[in-house]
Design goal:
The chain is mostly beta strands and 353 residues long. The protein contains four helices and 21 strands. The protein starts with 9 loop residues before the first helix and ends with a strand.
């Protein structure tokens, strides 16, 4: 089981999302009537790396020697821990429509993990560091949500709370007046993210349920008892999906016209549902090419339509195009039997007892 390759780049996306929060911070220094604006550099790495860089190039009298610019910020992951307070049932799964009709992609519920971050603010004077701090703290009360596309193959986007846990301060000003001062603010954060396992494709045999058939008996022994009542449920599309035109409007209609004529109503029957533009209508009466309809059916909005507009019909061809993530209704059928047969689920046929 372990060893099945699965990499959604979730931890990487969490690191990138965290860093993005702080990549546009700037400081401003005013002298007289002039203001200097400086964007604060941000890099991934431990603060010790930058402090060591300060110590290594401390002598500016040697040739080609240069110190790093302050202020600057750095961040890094320091902990990854399981969060049992957000645990969900591991047997539940998320399902979305696959790339082919009738197929689905499935992934089991994610495992909650907390990723700890440390953000270090290194400055040479207090005013610079306080400018940076005041651009960060007001947004964390104590958390700030970022939306991350955790599993792009199924479009699983979630809000990841980033919580500010604590702030510490240190002043590493040691030595004589020629030594460089480094003020360090360390902010501790926790990002509450989720880790997903492999996404199972249709090849594993996962299909959409496109019909449900239930037989009811009048005896407990269903092996020898014939079916008496059958209840069938099938998904039905709420809009036209195949784009097949059955006729056109003879003249323009307003948004409240319940009676109008079409060019040819041969392919339309009473109780059919038709669609003009984005509006679905229910046909209640028919006389020649004149239709009486219920406007704004299936929660659509009645609108005006121009003459010669295409009239589409919702039928079985549209129902088979329904995907798992579509809005759809259900068709129900009750049947009563007295023919001493029963339904064989293996063949999908009624057989004699």
């Amino acid at each position: 089981m372990l060893g099945t390759y699965s990499y959604h780049e979730i931890l990487r996306k969490t690191v990138v999302g965290f860093g993005t929060l702080f990549n546009n911070i700037e400081i401003r220094r005013t002298s007289g009537g002039r203001t200097e604006v400086m964007k604060v550099p941000l890099a991934y790495g431990p603060q010790q790396k930058f402090l060591a860089r300060l110590d290594q190039v401390g002598d500016l009298t040697s040739k080609d020697a240069a110190q790093i610019t302050l202020p600057r910020m750095s961040f890094e992951i320091n902990t990854i821990s399981y969060d049992n307070s957000r645990k969900v049932a591991p047997t539940q799964a998320i399902r979305v429509a696959g790339s082919t009709r009738g197929s689905v992609k499935k992934v089991f519920m994610p495992v909650p993990y907390n990723v700890g971050f440390e953000l270090a603010i290194i400055a040479k004077n207090q005013d610079d560091s306080l400018q940076i701090i005041e651009q960060i703290l007001p947004f964390f009360q104590p958390q700030f949500n970022i939306t991350i596309n955790l599993v792009s193959s199924i479009g699983e986007k979630r809000d990841v709370p980033v919580i500010l846990n604590s702030i510490s301060y240190s002043d590493d000003y040691e030595g004589n007046f020629e030594s460089r001062r480094a003020l360090i603010y360390t902010l501790s954060f926790t990002a509450k993210t989720y880790l997903f396992g492999p996404v199972q494709e249709t090849g594993a045999g996962t299909k959409l349920i496109t019909a449900v058939t239930t037989d009811m008996y009048d005896r407990v022994d269903t092996v020898t008892a014939p079916r008496k009542v059958r209840y069938q449920v099938t998904p039905e599309s709420l809009v036209d999906r195949d784009g097949a035109v059955v006729t056109t409007l003879s003249a323009s209609i307003d948004d409240n016209d319940g009676i109008f004529e079409v060019a040819d109503a041969t392919g339309i029957a009473i109780y059919d549902e038709i669609q003009i533009g984005n509006e679905v209508m229910h046909v209640s009466k028919k006389s020649g090419n004149k239709l009486t309809v219920v406007r704004g059916f299936n929660q659509t909005t009645p609108t005006a339509h121009l003459g010669s507009a295409n009239v589409l019909k919702l039928d079985a061809a549209d129902h088979v195009l329904v995907q798992s993530d579509d809005d759809f209704g259900f068709g129900e059928l009750f049947s009563e039997f007295s023919d001493m047969k029963k339904y064989d689920p293996d063949t999908g046929q009624d057989v004699d007892l």
